[in-house]
Amino acid sequence: MDARTVEQITEWDSRPFSGGFEALRDLADADFSGAVKADGAWLFMLNGRVVGVFGGNLDSFEDANGTAFEAPHPSLPLLFSMQERGGKTQAKYYTNDTSLDEACSTLASNNFTGYVELSENVLSGDYYVVYHGGRSMNVAYVGESEKLLTEDEAFERANDEVGIYEVVAADVDIIDVPEPETPPEPEPTPAQSQQSESDSGSKTESEPEPVSDSTPKSADDSAASAPSDSQPAQSSQASSPQTPEGESAQNQKSSRRASSEADRETKQSQPTKSAQSSGPAGETKTPASFSDEQQWRETTTIPSLDPEKSSSSKPRETGVKQRRNTRQSPQRQAQNRTPSGASASNRAKELEAELSARAEKIEALQTELKSVEVERDELKQERDRLQNELDQLRTELQTVRQSSPAATAERQITPQQAFTETNLFVRYGSKGKGTLADAAAGEANRETIESNLKLEYHTRFDVDGVAVDGKEYETFLHESMEYQFVSWLVVDLLYEIIETGHQRGLKDLFDAIQEIDRAELQGTLSVEAEEGDERELSFDIILRDRMGNPLVVANINDSRDPATGEMLGSLVDASSDVASANNELSAAFQVTKSFFEPAALETTEDATSGGLLTREKRESFVKLSRKRGYHLCLVESRNGEFHLTVPEL
């Protein structure tokens, strides 16, 4: 059994279950709806009919003791039985496309058996419509407390919800509880046999008895033909016209008992007289259109044992009476089996012993119940404690959200919009205190440049009240790889080239750094295509001089995945087109937060080798012609610091 289903069932009203099949028959007579647990097996009942057994079979309950749980609504045992048995999903619908009311009308008109579950993308609760033969019942669990709603209230709430509901077809097996064994009747005496034959002849002359009639006799007829206290053999052995003259009295009894059983089974499998039509020769036929209604009625309705209170026709009442007359309690069966010579005192002692055993069992069950109740109370306390912790965490989360820049920001923009509408400018506190040109000439040290140089930003939008990715705009910008790379390039890289003596090998890049005026983020450059048309080439960063000429281009890989050969190939193609159209381009950078795949390194080597006979002295240089080319550089970002890996310094 599903653990969630067991948890819900154990919250129902419960009482001890003792007596096996006899106790099940008592529940059936009481129109019980709920579940019975015994020896690890579970049995579901709907209005006194068994609709499912799990974790065992019906024989598991023959002499079992356990617990009966009464359902707060009859739809629940039918629903749980269908869910435990498993069904087949017929379709899924979105409520805005197909309303729940429309789908339920269609299912009812098609005599559907199964259930509809509305729970996906629904925050308020879980809603169900349970069907059998087109008849439906409604149930729902709503809110964090899983409050139970039923029928109109449940369906109205469900019909107002927005979400996805699932239509599941499921089978239902109606299982009969075995009838008690009837003690064998005593053999008739010769005198009784003669009297029976005499009565049979009288009955034949007066009025024949229809043994094979498909309609059971009425209650009055049954009473008239029942044996009296003084003459049990004579009145019960009357023979029909079909009985052979030489048939024994015992065979006549068996024939009559089989006929009575056939009458009762025929009655249970047919609708009431109001739903039947009579054919030729008094035959009773059941119209096909009533078959599904009959199945539902037999599943959900057990007629009253009192004929005056039964809503069924008289033949229906007779069938119930016959069924009731065949049932006997264990005590009555024991009395029937008791020899006529047994004393009343011995029987009383047996009953007292049986009552004592029952009392001990009840006491043990009550002790077990108290233990379970204590465990239940402890679990409820634990649940309440966890719920309080959850509420506190939600309150703290709400407080954090309200205090975050994203929550207080007047508007949110995307990182793409923030970059495309932002430019960085290289500015000095005072040009007399040291510039990049002074640093290249060896006239200003690193500390002087760092204190005098500033990266200022200019945006095409008002940054007040703006948040990007849950952060204030300025915080987002300074933490971005784009901003940090530009800051590293204009100061740190210049001094690394100087300190390692690579001014000549990286001459074009070294000279270009001194001329950088601004950095365009998420920018584009136009180049002329072969057909004479212009095409746009995109780069994550474009560093320009005061006249707007592109000096350096760079692409950023801000993921944990390594930079690939395709990334380097795209950068080389685009940078070569720009360098062919702009003599000022000095370098192209591929920056990664991870590392470079071997394919990326091979692409770089192929682009910068220049052939076997090359005399090129410039490092990692992509040569386009005798006078044109650019440095291809690979940079890795680790722990917030940048390292030039190609060319190695």
TrEMBL record:
InterPro entries: DUF7527 (IPR055949). Residues 258-267, 306-320 have a biased composition (Basic and acidic residues). One of its GO terms (biological process) is cell division. Residues 413-649 form the DUF7527 domain. Residues 177-351 are annotated as: Disordered. Gene3D superfamilies: 1.10.287.1490. Residues 212-242 have a biased composition (Low complexity). Keywords: Cell cycle, Cell division. The keyword Cell division applies. Residues 243-253, 268-279, 286-303, 327-346 have a biased composition (Polar residues). It comes from the Archaea. Pfam families: DUF7527. This is Cell division protein ZapB.
